[in-house]
Design brief:
This protein has 240 residues and is mainly alpha-helical. It is built from eleven helices and no strands. The protein folds into three domains: 28 residues; 139 residues, Lysozyme, CATH 1.10.530.10; 56 residues, Endochitinase, domain 2 (2-Layer Sandwich), CATH 3.30.20.
Length: 240
């Protein structure tokens, strides 16, 4: 490469880095790392025995898909939302140890053939994956459409690409009410309490006195994580 061409490439790269269009030196993008309320060292404290698949970098790179996540409200609110999300994630994955659902007997159950698009990846391809264990063909379709990734045809991306995996968790958190009446994001930024995030994620099985051990594990993790982040549990109900 000539010196002139090399200089042009260097200048263009510098401009792209400055504009946030590429990552310099393999570091976490400045926009993600600079505004995220959780540092890498705090993330390591929360998940000391996590699977290597679940990287801090993967989470930081996923933040751009939902820029309102942990950027809404006061510093305390932002930290509570981060703690609430990761507490539910920790419960679903046993401390980020599991990437996929462990009960393989369930795998074939997650194909709803009544959907017009069917199950192009196969009857048993839509089992739980990722930080919030995305499952069912219709959820892969909806998440993929929102994220501009064809997860219906390739659900395996959720267990092979850390950033895609984290994005599916953020998709549910920020856009789905699940079994509740609001998204988990709205529950935290509107001060409705951690209990409402449990209701959205697994309320049919864990709220109104059902499965108290499961529900209490989520609550205990939330209490632990807000402490790591230097805040408190905030207003609203802890339980559902």
């Amino acid at each position: 490469m000539s010196r002139i061409r090399l200089r042009i490439v260097v200048v263009l790269n510098a401009v792209m880095v400055a504009c946030g269009l590429m990552v310099a030196g393999g570091a976490v993008p400045a926009a993600a790392a600079g505004t995220f309320v959780i540092s890498e060292s705090q993330f390591d404290r929360m998940f000391p025995n996590r699977n290597a698949f679940y990287t801090y970098r993967g989470l930081a790179d996923a933040l751009g898909a939902y820029p309102e996540f942990t950027t809404t409200g006061s510093d305390a609110v932002r930290k509570r939302e981060a703690a609430a999300f990761l507490a539910n994630v920790s419960h679903e994955t046993v401390g980020l140890k599991f990437i996929v659902e462990q009960n393989r007997a369930n795998y074939s159950h997650y194909c709803d053939r009544s959907q017009p698009y069917g199950c192009p990846a196969g009857q048993s391809a839509y089992y739980g994956r990722g930080p919030l264990q995305l499952s069912w063909n219709f959820n892969y379709k909806a998440a993929g459409d929102a994220l501009h990734v064809d997860l219906l045809s390739n659900p395996y991306a959720v267990e092979r690409d850390a950033t895609v995996s984290w994005k599916t968790g953020l998709w549910f958190w920020n856009s789905q009410a699940g079994a509740g009446t609001m998204t988990p994001h709205d529950a935290m930024v509107r001060g409705k309490g951690f209990g409402e995030t449990i209701r959205s994620i697994n309320g049919d099985l864990e709220c109104h006195g059902k499965n108290p051990d499961e529900r209490n594990d989520r609550i205990d993790l939330y209490k632990k994580f807000v402490e790591v982040l230097g805040t408190d549990v905030g207003p609203g109900n802890l339980s559902c």
